[in-house]
Amino acid sequence: MNTQEIIDKLTKADRSVIRDALEEVYSRVYVNAMFANIRRRTYLFRRTVRMYWESQSTFAAGVSRLIGELKGEEEMTEEVEDINK
Length: 85
Description:
The chain is mostly helical. Helices cover 79% and strands 0% of the residues.
């Protein structure tokens, strides 16, 4: 997925997190211009966007895996309870 596709999927909150992360290096106006593709996107900006997106997808996958594990445990617990009755 390229940077533009990632930016298109970001919410306002996601953009705010990225903007705050780059606040020490770039002004908010400059970061907004890079989001809008008015200004050339720097390497730091592109890497920050990608790192944020990858961490979000890793987090989402981890949560999905955890939910799956918990559902599996619940099903096993229910089966054990049924057997004990």
